[in-house]
Amino acid sequence: MGFHCDLPDKIGHALASVSTSMPYPYFSVDQILDENQYELLRSEFPDGLIQHDSENSGALELYPDTPIDTRLSQEWQTFLGYLRSDETRKRLVGICYHHTLRRYPRWMRPLAQFRLSNSDNYQIRLSFNSSTGGRYLRPHSDNSYKVLALILYFSDTSYESIELGTRFFSPKSRRAEKEAVRRFNRLADSRVIRSLPLQLLPMTSCNVHNNTSDETSRSVAEKWFSDNFNLEHIVGFKGNRVAGFIKTQNSFHAVDLRSAPADEVRRSLLINLNLKHSLIARLGQMFRVRVLRKST
């Protein structure tokens, strides 16, 4: 089975049309795959390989340095091989480069541009995801090493649901954005990290439940977020559609299925372009774990 899919080209067109006034670059693209190719992949979505947890969500991770799971259909193996190919990775890196560079303060860009322009410093990570009604993926900005996130939806193409879509948020003020990064940063439990300016933590991972210890503190955190951020846009859940964004400090997004029927299933393939950890990042992680005695 050959794939006549030019995913990088379609993502490139989508990113080129993103307004600079948006809080961070997010977009959606329909008809990513040929209709027949898409329907074949949808019919062979690997539900049987996904183990669900107590929060009504399950995933099948495909790490960059491991072979593609041979339990997947041949059609899926071919498609995933295309996504993980050097050609796809190089083109996505080139398409995202200027957006990736703008994530950093101006004074950092000359130092970062050589690393960010080299496709060998990136990896493609894939994950099948299946969630049912009741699931709540709270607002978060994603992992610090992520550059581009693509969520390819799988459902009957005649079906569309705003309720099952991906929600994107924007801060009501620059002050709210800065406080959110400070408050929800996963490294914020370290006094050393708290004293650093945000410019030195450009890609920190944030989640509204980070640094909360009980239901009361989680409710307080969620209320603060809802008071200080707007629901900017929802990319509706529709088959053969991609919801995507560039990860930044404030790329807060969420999936809220709490009002969806218990038997409603949200299937997707997550396609992430990740930046490999630099030597400085690895040394920083070692310092955090071994000296500060903090989590990784």
Ordered list of secondary-structure elements with their pairings:
Layout: H1 7-16, E1 26-30, H2 35-43, E2 51-52, E3 57-62, H3 74-83, H4 86-101, H5 109-117, E4 122-132, E5 136-140, E6 146-154, E7 160-171, H6 174-184, H7 191-194, H8 215-228, E8 229-238, E9 241-246, E10 253-256, E11 265-275, H9 279-290
Antiparallel strand pairs: 1-9, 2-3, 3-4, 4-11, 5-10, 6-9, 6-11, 7-8, 7-10
Overview of the structural elements:
There is one protein chain. This protein is of the alpha+beta class. It has helices spanning 7-16, 35-43, 74-83, 86-101, 109-117, 174-184, 191-194, 215-228, 279-290; strands spanning 26-30, 51-52, 57-62, 122-132, 136-140, 146-154, 160-171, 229-238, 241-246, 253-256, 265-275. The chain has a single domain (7-290), classed as Sandwich (Jelly Rolls), CATH 2.60.120.620. The strands form two sheets. A seven-stranded antiparallel beta sheet has the order 1-9-6-11-4-3-2, with helices on one face. A four-stranded antiparallel beta sheet has the order 5-10-7-8. The protein starts with 6 loop residues before the first helix and ends in a 6-residue tail after the last helix. The model has no long low-confidence stretch (mean pLDDT 89).
Please summarize what this structure is.
This protein has helices at residues 7-16, 35-43, 74-83, 86-101, 109-117, 174-184, 191-194, 215-228, 279-290, and strands at 26-30, 51-52, 57-62, 122-132, 136-140, 146-154, 160-171, 229-238, 241-246, 253-256, 265-275. With 296 residues, it is an alpha+beta fold. It has a single domain (7-290), classed as Jelly Rolls (Sandwich).
